[in-house]
């Protein structure tokens, strides 16, 4: 699933290509926006909020999208072949004179008034990648439910925005935290600081890396490595779901490096 750093990189590319440009053609391929035409509007700015992407247009209109599991935005030059997936996965096409932005597999795609953006992102906690990240608020949010597992608390976007399963899993490993440890037994400040440091470091990478080795199969310590030896102690990595359906997520951990107690 794309996480905050992935959305940040996508936002930066889109903003560099589209900001200040007039939309010459728009094509929305979702039922609720099928008749919408935003041609003639100017793209003012593209901004991230956690895992959400906001495209602000002239006329007080914002295009709100969320990647969830496998959504993405791709940029193409006029006439260039689209490579993001088959046509039936296209949800939005935004054209300017010099670029075409194509949104693929976007489960959330809607228009909101720019002044009403808080109705779709106002529930989010402090954004880890924001220059104005409020660490004190994030820590207070996490501490508000001390018996919750650290895994569930870090993944809850109402506490702090941007962390997904990859970073949550890797941070727990690097701090020696068992995934089911309650928040009350954890130094949450260390978890928040490490999460932010890792995400910011990966803003310059096309891939997410926590090991320092940017090569396939070597980028993570435990994430998606069930049954493989721990890179530190060679104990086999374990996996199990954590949380209640439908929000249960797969957790990966080393039982030796991340003891229960």
Verbal overview:
This is DNA-(apurinic or apyrimidinic site) lyase. By secondary structure, the protein is of the alpha+beta class. It has two domains: 118 residues, MutM-like, N-terminal (N-terminal domain of MutM-like DNA repair proteins); 119 residues, Orthogonal Bundle (Helicase, Ruva Protein, domain 3). Helices cover 22% and strands 21% of the residues. Helix 5 crosses helix 6. The chain is globular and about 60 Å long. The two termini are 30 Å apart. The mean pLDDT is 94.
Total individual domains: 2
> Pairing-aware structural class of the strands and helices?
alpha+beta
| Percent strand | 15-25%
Please report the number of helical segments: 6
Order of helices and strands: HEEEEEEEEHHHHHEE
CATH level-3 fold name of the largest domain: Helicase, Ruva Protein, domain 3
Q: What percent of residues adopt helix (DSSP H or I)?
A: 10-25%
Keywords: DNA damage, DNA repair, DNA-binding, Endonuclease, Glycosidase, Hydrolase, Lyase, Metal-binding, Multifunctional enzyme, Nuclease, Zinc, Zinc-finger
Domain Formamidopyrimidine-DNA glycosylase catalytic: 2-75
Family: Belongs to the FPG family.
Protein name: DNA-(apurinic or apyrimidinic site) lyase
């Amino acid at each position: 699933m794309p996480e905050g750093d992935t959305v940040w990189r996508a936002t930066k590319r889109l903003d560099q290509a589209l900001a200040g440009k007039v939309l010459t053609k728009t094509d929305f391929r979702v039922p609720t926006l099928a008749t919408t035409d935003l041609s003639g509007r100017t793209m003012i700015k593209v901004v991230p909020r956690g895992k959400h992407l906001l495209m602000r247009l002239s006329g007080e209109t914002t295009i709100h999208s969320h990647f969830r599991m496998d959504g993405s935005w791709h940029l193409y030059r006029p006439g260039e072949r689209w490579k993001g997936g088959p046509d039936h996965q296209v949800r939005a096409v935004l054209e300017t004179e010099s670029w075409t932005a194509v949104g693929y597999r976007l489960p959330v795609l809607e228009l909101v008034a720019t002044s009403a953006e808080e109705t779709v992102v106002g529930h989010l906690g402090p954004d880890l990648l924001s220059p104005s990240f409020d660490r004190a608020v994030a820590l207070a949010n996490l501490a508000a439910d001390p018996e919750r597992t650290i895994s569930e608390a870090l993944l809850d976007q109402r506490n702090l925005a941007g962390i997904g399963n990859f970073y949550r899993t890797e941070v727990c490993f690097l701090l020696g935290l068992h995934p089911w440890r309650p928040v009350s037994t954890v130094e949450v400040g260390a978890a928040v600081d490490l999460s932010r440091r890792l995400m910011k470091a990966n803003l310059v990478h096309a891939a997410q890396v926590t090991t320092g080795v940017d090569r396939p199969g070597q980028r993570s310590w435990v994430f998606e490595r069930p049954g493989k030896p721990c890179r530190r102690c060679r104990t086999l990595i374990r996996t199990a779901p954590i949380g209640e359906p439908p929000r249960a997520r797969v957790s990966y951990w080393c039982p030796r490096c991340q003891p229960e107690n």
